[in-house]
């Protein structure tokens, strides 16, 4: 009898523990997220446990753990990685009227295996003292001879550039995208190195004239304690490519409930919270991202860059080309 009571007590404690937590696997590593987690816990009483790592190890971890995983939610900064997680059967559909009301259908998976949370634009940054804005137009134009020795960007192995190449494949076809990648590579001011911030800094250093990078880095540099990064944010301007040709490519950050989540209701509440106006505005204010919820206000710094037309090209179509993207880059000599 005593044994049964002890087992019942332990079982009850396990259920209570499970009902008070949500376990997150995330490749995001931002202060904005920590603020949102704390807000969620304060409002719901549900503790957020976080495992943070690069996306590939997290996906591998989910695969190896299978039914034994403790992860309830998978979050990452690349829609191609969300697509991969879905294709490998690591996610399950989210059924939530709140999410449906908060996030436009074009910013979530067709089967609702993942939901867009924020996005960044893949922009061109330039120094108006060296480059006239009228010279800039499209991603395609960056592969023309007029930009010979002027373009800065990071390695093709970076997720951001792989997604950009995949975008070009989905948009223009593999043959044209291959020619574009070759022309772009021939226009590099130097061999790709460093992160996105380094490309912007290199413009001020005189190593090149324009840089391909993510928009949110300009916001982060404006708030940096590094005087060089502050100068970069003040002197350089943002240009949104392809405004008259389908719109600028965006990198979507999102979240999904894992297939073997043990705390499904908590996971759903957590994702619903990520999509509400308050959380969305925190992401924009502290990490300079664009909110996926159209009712949320963008941070003043982000707003100062001006409005732009984002591409509505199907995310699945782009994601299907991510694997091809590296091959296209390799053939073009894009390191």
From TrEMBL:
Family indicated by similarity: Belongs to the bacterial solute-binding protein 1 family.
Q: Which InterPro entries does UniProt cross-reference here?
A: Ferric-bd
Signal sequence extent: 1-18
Highest rank taxon of the organism = Bacteria
Q: What is this protein called?
A: Fe(3+) ABC transporter substrate-binding protein
Checking CDD domains in the record gives: PBP2_FutA1_ilke
**Sorted alphabetically, which Gene3D superfamilies does this protein's record hold?**
Periplasmic binding protein-like II
Question: GO CC annotations?
Answer: outer membrane-bounded periplasmic space
Query: What organism does the UniProt record list as the source?
Result: Campylobacter blaseri
GO terms (molecular function) for this protein are: metal ion binding
> What keywords are assigned to this protein?
Iron, Metal-binding, Signal
Q: Where does Fe cation bind?
A: 29, 216-217
């Amino acid at each position: 009898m005593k044994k049964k009571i002890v087992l019942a007590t332990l079982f009850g404690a396990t259920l209570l523990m499970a009902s008070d937590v949500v376990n997150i696997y995330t490749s995001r590593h931002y202060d904005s997220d920590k603020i949102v987690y704390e807000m969620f816990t304060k409002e719901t009483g549900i503790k957020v446990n976080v495992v943070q790592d690069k996306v590939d190890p997290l996906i591998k971890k989910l695969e190896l753990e299978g039914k034994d995983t403790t992860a309830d939610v998978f979050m990452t900064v690349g829609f191609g990685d969300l697509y991969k997680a879905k294709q490998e059967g690591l996610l399950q559909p989210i059924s939530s009227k709140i999410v449906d009301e908060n996030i436009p259908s074009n910013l979530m998976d067709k089967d609702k295996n993942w939901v867009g949370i924020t996005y960044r634009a893949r922009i061109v940054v330039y120094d108006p003292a060296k480059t006239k804005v009228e010279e800039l137009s499209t991603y395609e134009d960056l592969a023309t001879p007029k930009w010979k020795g002027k373009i800065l960007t990071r390695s093709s192995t970076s997720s951001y550039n792989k997604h950009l190449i995949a975008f070009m494949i989905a948009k223009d076809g593999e043959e044209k995208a291959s020619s574009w990648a070759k022309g772009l590579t021939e226009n590099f001011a130097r061999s790709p190195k460093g992160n996105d911030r380094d490309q912007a800094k290199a413009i001020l250093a005189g190593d090149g004239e324009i840089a391909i990078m993510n928009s949110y880095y300009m916001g982060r540099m404006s708030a940096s304690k590094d005087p060089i990064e502050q100068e970069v944010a003040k002197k350089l301007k943002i240009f949104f490519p392809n405004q008259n040709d389908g719109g600028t490519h965006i990198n979507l950050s999102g979240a999904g409930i894992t297939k073997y989540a043990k705390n499904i209701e908590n996971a759903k509440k957590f994702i619903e919270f990520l999509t509400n106006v308050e959380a969305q505005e925190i992401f924009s204010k502290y990490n300079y991202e664009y909110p996926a919820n159209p009712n949320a206000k963008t941070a003043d710094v982000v707003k100062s860059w001006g409005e732009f037309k984002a591409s509505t090209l199907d995310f699945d179509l782009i994601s299907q080309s991510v694997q091809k993207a590296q091959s296209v880059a390799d053939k073009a000599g894009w390191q």
